[in-house]
Amino acid sequence: MRSTSAPPELVGAPAIRRTLAEALRSAESHLTASGVASPRVDAELLAAHLLRTERVGLWQYLQQPVPTGFDDLVARRAERIPLQHLTGVSYFRTTELAVGPGVFSPRPETEVVAGHAIDVLRGMMRESGDDTTATLRVVDLCAGSGAIAAAITVEVPGLDVHAVERDPAAGPWLLHNARAHGFAAHLADVDGCLPELTGRVDVVVANPPYIPEGSIPRDPEVSRFDPPAALYSGPDGLEHMRIIERAAARLLRPGGHVVVEHGDLQGRLAPEVFSATDEWSDVRDNVDLAGRDRFVSARRSSV
Ligand SMILES: C[S@@+](CC[C@H](N)C(=O)[O-])C[C@H]1O[C@@H](n2cnc3c(N)ncnc32)[C@H](O)[C@@H]1O
Hints:
- By secondary structure, this protein is of the alpha/beta class.
- Helix content is 36%, strand content 18%.
- It has helices at 20-33, 39-51, 70-78, 83-87, 108-128, 147-155, 171-181, 220-225, 239-251, 269-275, and strands spanning 89-92, 95-98, 137-141, 160-165, 184-187, 201-206, 252-261, 280-287, 293-300.
- The strands form 2 sheets. A 7-stranded mixed β-sheet has the order 5-4-3-6-7-9-8, with helices on both faces. A two-stranded antiparallel sheet has the order 1-2.
- α5 (108-128) packs parallel to α6.
- The longest helix has 21 residues, at 108-128.
- The site of S-adenosylmethionine (SAM) has 22 residues, from α6 and β4.
């Protein structure tokens, strides 16, 4: 008869657990095989999340047992659930944002767009010199989690910053981040939003939806987890560019600035939305850190 008890050499032996270093190596190959773009970084960020430490501090734990829950998180990341949904955090410039199901995960290319708006605002502050009565006002349209509004609020203290988002599913994330970072959140459609600020805004900034309807994003993290309302914008992908142009023309004071992100193939057509009317001057297109066409900037005409 076969014995069901443990082999004698294992009785009383301590449980053998993999070290974090070993677990990271197998996680990296698992995520690579699943098509994840940055497998090692993602594995490290999941471990850092469980250990409540920064990624750079992981070296202290490499020879420790792998933290409980690591394999489960890696398996879910291998199913292409976005890293940000697993950790609940998105890092954007100098800020940490709460994100998860129902809201668009902020992208690195948008950091350059926010950076341009920040540079414009700092230039305006230098120009206003000692005039402390003039609080500059900013509106982030199509705000999602409020990433752009949060970065501007943190990096240029003393502004009056507003974020506008229509999708009720994104609302709780936006409200949470607005409270955490200190900007005003408005659940509203861009079209007709903030009538009380008409002609009183210094900078309008936006990362609207801009994928042409019918195009399918390649990455499952995008096609399965970003809300469709955050992605698609009419047959040419520029429907929201037109909506933002009209809203910015209404909200901005004469001489105010608009900054709007677009797709890397829209570097000619997106600026044309602005140059087609005499409401704007200094219309130009700008590139991201990879040198790809990325955002339009323009100034509200003074007359
Ligand atoms: C590409 S996401 C960008 C979110 C955020 N600005 C960022 O960069 O992370 C676009 C957002 O615009 C919102 N949106 C789309 N149409 C809108 C409209 N007409 N009014 C207000 N928000 C809108 C979507 O719900 C989505 O959250």
